[in-house]
Amino acid sequence: MRVVGIELEPHAFRLVVLDGTARRWKVVGLASETLPPAGEGEDPQAALAAAVENAFRRLKAPRDPVFATVPSSECVFRTLLLPFKGEEQIRKVLKFESEGHLHHWNIDDIVVDYLSLGEAKGQTNALVVAAPKEVLKRALATCEACGFDPQTLDLDATALFNAALQTGALPAEGGVLLLHVGTRSSLLLLVEDRALRHIRAVRAGLDSMSAAVARDLGLDPESAARKAAELESGDEIVVDFEADARGDLEKSPRVLEQGLVAGRREELAVRLAHEVVRSTAGAALQRPPSSVLLSGAGAALADLPVRLSTELGLPVTVFNPLERVEGPIPENDVKAAGPLVPAALGAALKGIGLDATRIELRQEGLRFTRTFDRVKLPLLAALSLLLVALLLENIYLYRKVHDRLEPSLRTLVEVATGDAKNLAKIDTRPVESIELRKRLPYLKSQVEGKLKTLREKLGQGVDQPMSALEAWRLLFDKIAEVKDEIGRFSLDDLKFDTVPKPVRGGLEDHVEVTLSATFYGSAEEAAPHYDRLMAAIEAAPWVAPASLRRPGIKRPPDKEESVAEPVKFSVIVPGPKGGETP
Amino acid sequence: MNLPFAKALTGEGDSLRTGILAVAALVLLAAGALGFQWSRYASYRDSLEPGKRSVAAISAAAKQIKELEDEVREDDKLGRDDVTYITQQATASNFGDVNPKQSTKSPAKGYKDTIFTITASEKERNYYRQQLATFFYYIEAKRSRMRVTAIDLRLADKKKPEDDLWKFTAEFTSRTREGD
């Protein structure tokens, strides 16, 4: 996992990118920049935001998660003896207990957190941190302008301690002074047996030294800062103010300038040493510091460790956390920027779960919330409303079915059951065990099934064969019609055969008729009678067109009558089919 | 009192997430129930109009059944089986004894014809056409599922043109659908 730790100041920032987990991690990116004072009409926050944005892009650093620090110099520290043990108990009363010790602030305008210094006899010795909400809001606004929303806001002091602890810079036993000399302020942290005992932020840093140099030499702040830093690469300048100072001044203005700068450095070292002594005395440590770890921009001043060592009587070494960790950072960058970034590194370590102090200033209304967290409450409300709407709709539909549709359907079923039972004589007892909506289809199928069976039994519903009897009737009606025109004749044989012919979707029958007749009289007399009968048959509408076969009539030599050869034709009986009586 | 969801609904920390999940689960359940209710409602609503038509159809069919059952009762009086019916009609029409022989054939796929071949029980007996027509008419008129499908008349003894005595063979057919 990649996390970013960032230490933001009004004109500077330090940024560290960590990759890994609490067990194994390395520094994969590093940026440190101090911006020149903003010109007239320039927005210092916009310039800082642009620089931070640029650093994020250059390092391909993620915008989330980011862990930031705020300057301890903006906060107040108090050591309180709280009459409780346990984090939950203490957090409940912390603000109330702190109120009496933070007279100059309205308790509603600050955020309070604490660091346990030890517990004894049901009491907790707590180092209480109070940060004005206004300062935190400003810091968050800067973060927002820089394009990220930090998950936590830590103190630069506690982050510094975290970095020193996690990189193994602190000895297991004994006291150590962590001294971070920044541009605007300096941090004094007293550590005893790897436990943080005291924090102090002193409004003295490189800026105050530069301001003094500017006053001394009549320079603008930027030139003064440059001048104040010039000595760092040169030999140590020792100015003996007890000697003939006037003579020196006349001899060399440069020596004078160097002397003034060295004096201001000395002044800074003396003040810092003085503050250290005060703090150490006030902290009442069992093991006073036996060494000093120096970090911050002040660590770049070559003579400061020596001066501090002299003033404090303790060994002073530069604390460069990057020399103690893995990472692909170039050696030059490690050397130059290492002492500047311990707070940013400590904040980043918090992001991977290495957090020695658990200080969190994003509290109350300033709490970090992810997008989902922000919509949780509206989402819950919307879901609840949806739930209520769904339940109401459920009830509405249930009532509609129960009160209106079901009774109507039940009435229909009762009517149908009555008819099926009383008229169709169907056993309707099984209906009771069937689901209401399926009763009507069941009854319908039962009734229709019985109807079909009855129809079949009566020969209905099936096209019955064509009636040969009907063909007979038609033929004899026709003969009776032309009886007077065909003379004397008699029928010899008659044959009617109903012939079924399958067609698509059923049968089309016809009746084949074979007729043999005898016509009495001479051939000259019989032939017209025969023709007349044939013509009458052929013209009948029920005779199939072109079906008449008339072989002719002949008179046997020994007979008086003429005999017609068998005549054949097809009759299509008109009228209803399908079992209807013709 | 420690209510499990009280804290969740007050929105503290991850409990709110739990609350959302719980309410979302309830919403899903309610949506499922709504789906069920809606399908039930739609089913009832959609079965009401067809139900009215079904009731009308059932009522009409029931009346038809009642009428057809009357017909069946009348038909049964004429003989439950067709051979008995034919014999009865022969007697009723003063035709005399007949000798029906039953066979079946399929005129087309799905149809079955039951054919009764009728001949006179006495070989030497001759019939007037009027007798034959009356018998055939009785056969068709009183049982609608039976048709005269073949008549073969041969003149028995012709001495004069007016002679009208015949020998006959006839077939009566009752057609049904196969598989019914």
Describe the model.
In chain A, 42% of the residues lie in helices and 23% in strands. Chain A is α+β, with helices and mostly antiparallel strands and 582 residues long. Among the domains of chain A are: 170-318, 2-Layer Sandwich (Nucleotidyltransferase, domain 5), CATH 3.30.420.40; 390-457; 468-571. Mean pLDDT of chain A is 86; it is low at 232-239 and 578-582. In chain B, 52% of the residues lie in helices and 21% in strands. Chain B folds into two domains: 1-77; 82-177, Alpha-Beta Plaits. By secondary structure, chain B is of the alpha+beta class. Chain B is built from four helices and five strands. The mean pLDDT of chain B is 84. Chains A and B meet through helix 12, helix 13, helix 14, strand 14 and strand 15 of A and helix 2, helix 4, strand 4 and strand 5 of B. Strand 14 of chain A pairs antiparallel with strand 4 of chain B.
What share of the residues of chain A does DSSP label as strand, in percent?
A: 15-25%
Chain pair forming the biggest interface: A-B, 77 and 75 residues
SSE ordering of chain B: HHHEEEHEE
The CATH homology group name of the domain at 170-318 in chain A? ATPase, nucleotide binding domain
CATH architecture of the largest domain in chain B: 2-Layer Sandwich
Précis, in short:
The complex is a heterodimer of chains A (582) and B (180). Chain A is an alpha+beta fold and 582 residues long.
What is the topology?
The complex is a heterodimer of chains A (582) and B (180).
Chain A: E1 2-9, E2 12-20, E3 25-34, H1 44-59, E4 66-70, E5 76-82, H2 87-99, E6 110-120, E7 123-132, H3 133-146, E8 152-155, H4 156-166, E9 175-181, E10 186-192, E11 195-202, H5 206-217, H6 221-230, H7 245-251, H8 253-283, E12 289-295, H9 304-312, E13 316-318, H10 331-337, H11 342-351, H12 371-422, H13 436-457, H14 468-481, E14 489-503, E15 506-519, H15 523-539, E16 553-554, E17 562-564, E18 567-571
Parallel strand pairs in A: 1-4, 4-8, 9-12, 12-13
Antiparallel strand pairs in A: 1-2, 2-3, 5-7, 6-7, 9-10, 10-11, 14-15, 15-17, 15-18, 16-17
Helix pairs in contact in A: 1-3, 4-11, 5-6, 5-8, 8-9, 12-13
Chain B: H1 6-10, H2 14-77, H3 82-92, E1 101-105, E2 111-119, E3 127-128, H4 129-142, E4 147-155, E5 165-177
Antiparallel strand pairs in B: 1-2, 2-5, 3-5, 4-5
